[in-house]
Amino acid sequence: MIALETLDRCFHGIVPGVVATCDADGMPNVSYISQLMLVDAKHVAMSCQFFNKTRQNLDANPLATIEIYDPLTFEAYRLHLRFVRSETSGPIYDALALRIQAIAAHTGMAGVFKLRSADICEVIDIERREGFIEPAATPERVVLPDGPLTELRGLQLVSDRVSRAPDLDSLLGGALAALDEVFGFTHGMIMLPEGDRLVTVASHGYGGAAIGAEVKIGEGVIGSVAEAKQLVRIACVSSDLRYARAIREQYEQGTARAAAEIPLPHLANAESLMTIPLLVQGRLVGVLVLETRNSLTFSQWHEAFLQVLANQIASGIDRMAEREEHASETTLSFCYYRNDDCVFVDGEYLIRNVPGKILWKVLRAYQADGRTEFSNRELRLDPNLGLPAIKDNLESRLILLRKRLEQKCPAVKLVPTKRGRFSLAVDAALELIERETA
Questions:
Q1: Tens digits of residue pLDDT in 276-320
Q2: Which of 327, 357, 373 is the last residue of a domain?
Q3: Best CA proximity match to 289, nearest among 160, 165, 193, 176
Q4: 136 found inside a domain
Q5: Model confidence over 198-208: pLDDT tens digits?
Q6: Which terminus of the chain has a lower count of CB atoms within 10 Å, N or C?
Q7: At which of 327, 350, 367 does a domain end?
Q8: pTM of the predicted model, to two decimals?
Q9: How many angstroms separate the CA atoms of 377 and 392, rounded?
Q10: Where in the sequence is the domain holding 25, given as residue range(s)?
Q11: Within this chain, do residues 340 and 290 fall inside the same structural domain, yes or no?
Q12: Are 29 and 123 in a shared domain?
C-alpha cells in the first residue's frame, strides 16, 4: 500500500481533489473538495462549510472515494475512505478553520464563509490511477532545500544574526536576509503589533514598498493569524481566493452585502504564503510573512522548522524591546584620565593602559558618529594607541577589555563579527568625561 504521508503535495490544494459518495439508495454524487487535510498516516479530514450533498451522503453511507493529484508529476491517486466522525473543535478543526477564516476575512466573508465541521475519514486503501497520464521519462522534480545541513545552517545563521544584532532594525533585517540566503525565501516581511493593527517594520525583496503597510488584527490572512496565534500555510493562494470570491458572489445575490475585501500589502500574484505568529510565552510580538510565486515552495517540514526559527526571532524582538526600555532609563557615565589611560564607569574602576585607550576610542566614535563597526587593522594604525610594531598582543587586549565589560558594565559589549572585526553594542545612554588626572 502506498504510504499516505508520501502524498503530501497532493494535499496542498493546487489541483482540487474530487470526492464521490452515495446516498442510502446508491445514488452517486461527485463534487470538488474545498479543503482536504492530511491528519496522520491513516486519516484525512475534509472541510464541511455548507449543508451539502456530500455530508448528507456520508451520514447515510460512510464509504467514499477521493481522487487527488500530484501537482508536479500529474499522477492521480484514489483514496478509499470510511467516514469516522465530525469534529467541531480541537486541533484538526482549528487548523482547517483558521485557513478558511483567513481566506474568508480577506474576501470580506468573515462570519459567512466558515467551517461547520472537520469530517474525519479513515483511509482504507490507496491506489495509483494507472493510465491517467501517458508513460513518459521521469519528470523533473522541484528540488526543495531540505536536509540536516541546510536546516542546521539556517538555524545557525538566524540565531547568529539575532544574537549579534545591535538594534531591532539589524535583527529583523538580518533574520529575513538569512532566510533568503539559506532557503531562497526572496520575499518576506515582519510586522509588529501597534494597538489593534500590525505594522510592517522590516521587509526583504520588496524594495522598501512594504514598509509601513498595515493590517488590522483579525482581518485578512495575516490579521487572522495574529488573532488566532496559529501558523497558516497556503499553497494555492489564487485558487483559494477564486473559490471564496465565487461564494461571495452567490451570497451577494441575496439581500446581504459582504464586507469590503482587504488588499494584501505584499507580493502581487503570490501563490505560496506562510504566515507565522511570533510568540513569547503566548504573547504576540509580531508576525513573520513569507511568500513566493511558486505554489510548491513550502512543504510540510517547513512548518515545524520555520516555527523554530520564528521562536528565535520572537525571543530576539522581546529581548531587544527590553534593552531599549532599559536603555531609555539608564545613563552610564564613563570617565577617562589621560595621565594613566585609566577608565572609570559610574565612579568605579574599569580598565587602564592600552585596553582603556581602545575603549575610549570606540566610545567616542560611537557618541560622535554613531559608529558600531570597528576593525583590528584601524586600531593597529592609530598612533594614539601606542601599540608596538611587533607582537602588539592586540587580540589578547581586546579579550581582556571584553571580559572586563562583561563583569563591570554588561550594557556595553564588544561583539566579534568576523576575523579581525568587532562591533560595539550599547544598551544605555552614555555620558563621556575626559580629565587630565584623577
A1: 999 998 899 999 988 887 766 676 677 778 888 888 889 888 887
A2: 327
A3: 176
A4: no
A5: 888 888 887 76
A6: N
A7: 327
A8: 0.50
A9: 12
A10: 4-128
A11: no
A12: yes
